[in-house]
C-alpha cells in the first residue's frame, strides 16, 4: 500500500522513522549523540585592567569594563568617589596638562590614565581685535570643550590667565557645556569684532604647590 507525500514523494509503509519523520531507504543513519563532538566553548577575551590616578594626586585605582569615554569617566569617578562631570579630560602616562599625551581613541595595555578634574573657575574679558583669537579647541567626548593650543602672539596668548587645558564653560553667560568643539569654535568665530565678550573658564585642579 502506498500513499502520497506532501510534495508527491511516495513513502513506503514500514520505512524507518527517526523522531517520527520518515527517512528514505538508503539514507545513512545519524550518528549517536555520544559520537558528535561537543562544540568548542567560545573564546573568553581577557579582562583588560588599567591603572588610574587623579592628576593632582590620589592613590592608584584599577578600572576595567569600559567601551567608550563616558563609561571610562564613570569608572574613574566610581573609583575615586566623585561625579563623572568633574572630569575635564585624561592624559596618558603623565599627570601634566600635556596635550601631546591627551587620551584619544586607543589605550595601550601599559598606559597609565591620569584624570584631570575641575579646579578653579575664572572669568576673562576678551576684545576681538582680529578675526582669529588664536585658539585650538577640542572636546573630551563627554560634554566639555577645552583649549588644546594657544597660538603665540595671538589675542588669547596676550591674556596670561588663559591656559592650555582650560575648559570653556560659558561665552557671555551662555553655557556651552554639552557642545562639541566645532560648535564652540563657530560661536567664537561669529562674535563681532571690537566688541568685548566674557569667557568663563574652568582650569584643571593642580597638585598642592603646583603653579600654572
TrEMBL record:
Residues 123-190 form the PDZ domain. It holds the Pfam family PDZ. Residues 1-44 are annotated as: Disordered. CDD domains: PDZ_GIPC3. It comes from the Eukaryota. Belongs to the GIPC family. This is GIPC3 protein. It comes from Alca torda (Razorbill).
